[in-house]
């Protein structure tokens, strides 16, 4: 099966939100389980799509059908209410989630690479993100893709939840010194 990364269609937003919330819940990433206020935010991909780009990784069986959503991420390219860390000249992504049945097949990496590509398209010089300390697999992925820890950006959205920040400097494509 092939994986296609694209913006979620309107009829896929609920499924993308449900997947994201389920992955966080089953991964033990919500302090209060399904009662955690962040659970509702994770589920509400419709609201996110009004302010950012909700991207999905869709498994395609090659028959042209819609396919199953294998992962999702929210890309924030130009600030706004979903930018927790990003300042001027920066992009951010949030809520990366991969269906457990699709893990180990490059879905998370493909979603992150698409965020990096989009960041370049909007002229960002850096991409930032927040991650919970126990997300070790995600941290390995971020480091492999060129992200560095940015402890000066670490923060607590609620008491007791310390988020680790990562940053990726993008190449300055406006310079033409690669032809020298």
Classify the helix fraction into a percent range: 25-40%
Average pLDDT figure: 92
Overall 3D geometry? globular
Radius of gyration: 16 Å
Q: Which CATH C-level class is it?
A: Alpha Beta
Spans of at least 5 consecutive residues with low confidence: none
The CA-CA distance between the termini, in Å, is 41 Å
Give the domain tally: 1
Question: Helix/strand-derived class?
Answer: alpha+beta
Description of the structure:
The protein has 180 residues and is of the alpha+beta class. The chain has one domain: 3-Layer(aba) Sandwich (Aminopeptidase), CATH 3.40.630.30. Helix content is 29%, strand content 30%. It contains five helices and eight strands. Strands 1, 2, 3, 4, 5, 6, 7 and 8 form an eight-stranded mixed beta sheet that branches. α4 links the parallel β4 (90-98) and β5 (126-132).
């Amino acid at each position: 099966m092939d994986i296609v990364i694209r913006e979620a269609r309107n009829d896929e937003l609920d499924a993308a939100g449900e997947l994201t919330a389920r992955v966080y819940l089953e991964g033990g990433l919500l302090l209060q389980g399904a009662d955690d206020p962040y659970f509702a935010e994770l589920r509400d991909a419709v609201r996110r799509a009004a302010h950012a780009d909700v991207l999905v990784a869709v498994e395609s069986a090659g028959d042209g059908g819609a396919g199953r959503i294998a992962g999702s991420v929210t890309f924030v390219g130009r600030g706004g209410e979903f930018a927790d860390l990003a300042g001027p000249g920066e992009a951010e992504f949030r809520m990366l989630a991969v269906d457990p049945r699709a893990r180990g097949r490059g879905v998370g990496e493909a979603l992150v690479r698409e965020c990096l590509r989009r960041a370049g398209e909007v002229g960002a010089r850096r991409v930032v993100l927040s991650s919970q300390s126990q997300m070790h697999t995600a941290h390995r992925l971020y480091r492999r893709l060129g992200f560095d820890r940015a402890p000066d950006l670490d923060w607590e959205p609620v008491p007791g939840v310390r988020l680790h920040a990562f940053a990726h400097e993008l190449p300055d494509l406006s310079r033409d010194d690669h032809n020298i």
